[in-house]
Amino acid sequence: MALSTNCPRMLITALAGGGGKTLLSLGLCQAIQDLGYIVQAYKKGPDYIDAAWLSRASGRAVTNLDPFWLNRDALRTIFMDRLAHLMPNAPMCALVEGNRGLFDGLDIYGSASSAELARALNLPIVLSIDCTKMTRTAAAIVLGVENFDPKLFFLGVILNKVGTIRQEELLRKTLATYTDLPVLGCMPRLPINLMPERHMGLASQGPRLAEDIAKRLHKLRGYVKEYIDVYKVVEQAGVYAQENPLERPKSVPKEEKLYVGASAPVIGVVRDACLWFYYPENLEALKKSGAKVIELSLLGEEGKTPWPHLSGLYLGGGFPEDYVMELGTSKRLMALLDLAKRGLPIYAECGGFMLLAKSLLVHGKKYHMAQVFDVEVEFCARPCGLGYTEAEVIEENPYLPKGISFKGHEFHYSRCVRCENRFTLSLQRGSGMQVIDNKAYDGLQFNNVFAAYTHIFAPAVPCWAPNFVKIAATFSRKESVR
């Protein structure tokens, strides 16, 4: 029998990127908790940074939901499984932050848009409108948005960046006259930007920064509670959920763990200020496949001590360019080449790949990295790869079978300035490491090491975690008889 949920759920969206949905989502996450709810937040799309902020605001791990990677049943399963992990018999609320404009997707049909996700999960929508220098036009926009896709349901609108009391009055009267959507809140323009872009990019590393982040989130919480009818938002979302319960697709039989107890391979995950871009689902997939996952650091005192015994190593994305001085004194980083030569399985994405390069050029200065791959990487002021990727595996490797195609994404401000290696991935979409004859390529390998700019989402590439754990277990067995 299909499982169902009727807890309040909603999608927070806007007309375009920069329309205020992130600040609104962060504030609502906290304000809804003040009503006694446990909030499970989600981020539409592949974004790590907004997801990290939502995790801070909600107090729990955030799941990324992306129609580009997953079909409707898979999206619903992940959405509802995360809710099932919450405390029993406690009031719950699900909040999804959209990305870009509501209808903005990959093509003229809005593929992989926030609207497509809303349809897949039957999410009622809270629409944020930037009302800068606008009054009556807001009604025309609301009518257009409402009628563009009749399958969507809107809880109401939040008027954002309102300049004066007079403007607010005109906006409220106009919307009441020409539309049937309630105004759930009216937020004046912030006197200061609580979340500067670069500050957001630094996420939440270090006690001093963590304290600053907590203060910023606290201010945002008060701001939202003052200007938005939070109770009405949740109440209306609850009414909609009661009338439109969301059914979970029938469960797929669970795979048994490949290894248990003492036989479980130990996979280290570098999680520090340098590398912290990881999807929780990727780490969960490794655990479900039988690995013991431990967190490590390349920085500070931890970076100066020997590595523990490992069966495998996962290097995610992050900001290694900000920590080149500390990385230069990291004994753990310098030990990677020896581990790679011994056959330790190492899987590296983006920032993790940069650490495995021969050198990293930052602001004209060259810094030595682990030198696993004979490639030089240069940090640039603008993105060199940004968006979804579609890759075909063209070389044998331990992680991804040759011949398969999979979807991922890339987000990097660096580029390969010298790379004479043989590539493992051919990209139908994306920039990758190098373009040869108008064809993009990504992915390098050495022994059991695989590195690429492409990030993967484990539920969309189900072979990745079991293969990683198998090769880690094989390495561990070989090491035990040396």
Ordered list of secondary-structure elements with their pairings:
Elements lengths: L3 E2 L3 E6 L6 H13 L4 E7 L4 H10 L4 E3 L6 H13 L7 E10 L12 H8 L3 E6 L6 H12 L5 E9 L2 H14 L4 E6 L8 H5 L5 H21 L2 H14 L2 E2 L18 E5 L4 E3 L2 H9 L3 E5 L15 E4 L1 E2 L5 H4 L3 H4 L1 H7 L3 E4 L1 H6 L2 E4 L2 E4 L6 E5 L5 E9 L11 E8 L1 E6 L5 E5 L4 E3 L2 E4 L1 E3 L2 E4 L11 H17 L2
Parallel strand pairs: 2-5, 2-6, 3-4, 3-5, 6-7, 7-8, 10-12, 10-13, 13-15, 15-26, 16-18
Antiparallel strand pairs: 1-9, 11-14, 16-17, 18-21, 19-20, 19-22, 22-24, 23-24, 25-26
Would you mind describing this structure in some detail?
With 482 residues, the chain is of the alpha/beta class. It folds into two domains: 4-247, Rossmann fold, CATH 3.40.50.300; 263-480, Rossmann fold (3-Layer(aba) Sandwich), CATH 3.40.50.880. It is 33% helix and 27% strand. It has 15 helices and 26 strands. It has a seven-stranded parallel β-sheet, sandwiched between helices. It has a six-stranded mixed β-sheet with strand order 12-10-13-15-26-25. A five-stranded antiparallel β-sheet has the order 20-19-22-24-23, with no helix packed on it. Strand 25 (444-446) and strand 26 form a beta hairpin. Helix 1 packs parallel to helix 2 and helix 5 (137-148) crosses helix 6 (165-178). It is globular, with a radius of gyration of 24 Å. The protein starts with a strand and ends with a helix.
Structural class: alpha/beta
Give the second-level CATH assignment, the architecture of the largest domain: 3-Layer(aba) Sandwich
- As laid out across the biggest beta sheet, the strand order is 4-3-5-2-6-7-8
* Overall average residue pLDDT: 90
Query: Rg to the nearest angstrom?
Result: 24 Å
